[in-house]
Amino acid sequence: MDLQTKLSGGVTKIQQSIEQGKQKLQIAQEINKCRNIMEETAGKRAEELIKLGEAVYRKIRLGEIQDPHLLSLSEVLVELDKVLYQTKEKMEKLLESQEKGKVCMHCKQPLSPGDRFCGACGQPVAQEEEESDQYAACPRCEQFIPYPADFCTCCGIKLS
Question: Which segments constitute the DZANK-type domain (predicted)?
Answer without folding.
Answer: 104-156
